[in-house]
TrEMBL record:
Top-level class of the enzyme under EC nomenclature: transferase
Annotated SUPFAM superfamilies: P-loop containing nucleoside triphosphate hydrolases
Domain comment quoted from the record: Consists of three domains, a large central CORE domain and two small peripheral domains, NMPbind and LID, which undergo movements during catalysis. The LID domain closes over the site of phosphoryl transfer upon ATP binding. Assembling and dissambling the active center during each catalytic cycle provides an effective means to prevent ATP hydrolysis.
Function of the protein: Catalyzes the phosphorylation of pyrimidine nucleoside monophosphates at the expense of ATP. Plays an important role in de novo pyrimidine nucleotide biosynthesis. Has preference for UMP and CMP as phosphate acceptors.
Keyword annotations from UniProtKB, A to Z: ATP-binding, Cytoplasm, Kinase, Nucleotide-binding, Nucleus, Pyrimidine biosynthesis, Transferase
Organism: Cocos nucifera (Coconut palm)
One GO term (biological process): nucleoside monophosphate metabolic process
Gene3D superfamilies on file: P-loop containing nucleotide triphosphate hydrolases (3.40.50.300)
Location (main, coarse): cytoplasm
Annotated protein name in UniProt: UMP-CMP kinase
Positions contributing to CMP binding: N97
Length: 190
């Protein structure tokens, strides 16, 4: 165990399950810093970094960007935040992401918040989001769903076996989902 007491919660769930929406609520009530791996990767594309084109192509195909790229962005954002409580949203997305994060940072998540939502509902939400995301088209959405089931759900299962998963029914309206989320984070208000 490291010297500094850092609290990390992984926020996982399928594309459009509401990770970003609920993280914004958690930040307001519980003093966490929200780090969306997808947002950090999209910012990296915009910044014109040398990895930008590679990241853009992978996101368009719904593929998972190499761990070292994502982990570097997460570590930098954690340092720059000055906070010690983090919601890491949309990461780890596969077993390799998970193992690499553990090895590099030595951080174990406090728990995993898992937003459970049927694909048809997630598809509806993504197709009506209209935020100009390159990956919100039906072809890429189907690829994202497939990668989620094949690569990301095993990460949830790994933490579930350790008793660390807090599963939320994410198909309900936003405020009802947040009521369930609040119950899980209540200890952090102390
Ligand atoms: N909405 C939200 N909650 C709702 C509710 N309860 N009822 C009705 N509507 C609801 O929500 C999506 C939409 O639904 C919004 O319009 C919202 O208002 C509405 P949002 O909160 O944005 O859902 P979220 O789960 O955050 O969806 P997102 O599309 O961001 O999830 P993804 O996991 O697909 O996207 P992410 O940005 O994490 O990753 C994108 C890509 O980046 C990946 O496919 C991958 O290619 C790459 N990536 C990596 O390679 N590595 C990483 O570590 C991370 C990403
Ligand atoms: Mg998101």
């Amino acid at each position: 165990p490291g010297e500094k007491k850092i609290t990390v919660v992984f926020v996982l769930g399928g594309p459009g399950s509401g990770k970003g929406t609920q993280c914004a609520n958690i930040v307001k009530h519980f003093g966490f810093t929200h780090l969306s791996a997808g947002d950090l990767l999209r910012a990296e594309i915009k910044s014109g970094s040398e990895n930008g084109t590679m990241i853009q192509n992978m996101i368009r195909e719904g593929k998972i960007v190499p761990s070292e790229v994502t982990i570097k962005l997460l570590q930098k954002a954690m340092l720059e935040s000055g906070n010690d409580k983090f919601l890491i949203d949309g990461f780890p997305r596969n077993t390799e992401n998970r193992a690499a994060f553990e090895n590099v940072t030595k951080i174990e998540p406090k728990f995993v918040l898992f937003f459970d939502c049927p694909e048809e509902e997630m598809e509806r939400r993504l197709l009506s989001r209209n935020q100009g995301r390159d990956d919100d088209n039906i072809e890429t959405i189907r690829k994202r769903f497939k990668v989620f089931v094949e690569s990301s759900l095993p990460v949830v299962e790994y933490y579930d076996a350790k008793g660390k998963v807090r599963k939320i029914d994410a198909a309900k309206p936003i405020d009802e989902v947040f009521e369930a989320v609040k119950a899980i984070f209540a200890p952090f208000n102390a």
